[in-house]
Design goal:
The chain has helices at 19-26, 63-73, 92-98, 117-124, 142-154, 203-221, 223-227, 236-240; strands spanning 2-7, 31-36, 49-50, 60-61, 78-89, 103-107, 128-133, 188-189, 192-193. With 241 residues, it is an alpha/beta fold. It has 2 domains: 2-154, 3-Layer(aba) Sandwich (Alpha/beta knot); 173-240, Trp Operon Repressor, Chain A (Orthogonal Bundle). A hairpin with a 2-residue loop joins strand 8 (188-189) and strand 9. The structure holds adenine (ADE). The site of adenine has 12 residues, from strand 5 and helix 5. Belongs to the RNA methyltransferase TrmD family. Keywords: Cytoplasm, Methyltransferase, S-adenosyl-L-methionine, Transferase, tRNA processing. Its EC number is 2.1.1.228.
Length: 241
Amino acid sequence: MRVDVVSIFPDYLSVLDLSLVGKARQRGLLDLRVHDLRDWTTDRHRTVDDTPFGGGAGMVMRPDVWGVALDDVLEPGAQLVVPTPSGEVFTQRHAEEMATAEQLVFACGRYEGIDARVAEHYRDAGVTVRELSIGDYVLNGGEVASLVMIEAVARLVPGMVGNPESLVEESHGAAGLLEYPVYTKPPSWADLEIPEVLLSGHHARIERWRRDRALERTAERRPDMIAALDVATLDKQDLAL
Ligand code: ADE
């Protein structure tokens, strides 16, 4: 998979050399390229922004600079991702869809954002454009949001995660529940014991216990996820909880 990130702060993306994403790059699974938007400016000051039409505070990024940059970077079949606090909230479902793209291009805005015609123009040209927020808070720009999305997507690309089974049971997976609590050695720590059932070796009882804890935890922390559950996927014991 190819991933391109365009930003006026390319150094922000240097952490992509590390960890799982870094290893995937070394192994050739991920072709990741970071670009400086200012490389596409033509004036002496390398200007990327201007004042908003209609007035108001802050600066808006110019569509003409973004246009030449994106025309250069976008390949056929690409999805264009514009991180913005005004976007749809990014979820595991978006990550799954994005993991199937041949190329993802992240356009990182700063200031008050990118001139709205940029997203409109590429949508009109037939490109899948995703304006996505990573949560209901405001960051200084799209760089950190891009890092979050790149990590979420990269771990879904086949070959990226050592044990694909670890993707199955995790929170926000198909079950629509948060993950159950997990424990490891030592069995007793700080006067806290691990739940006995986990030592029983009784597979069915362990499964039941884990599902109950997942349901309990989700009800407590994410009632919205419980409300969204498909009742047909629940069994009798779920409903008795
Ligand atoms: N840019 C600034 N805030 C953001 C957010 N919450 N999500 C995505 N991009 C952003």
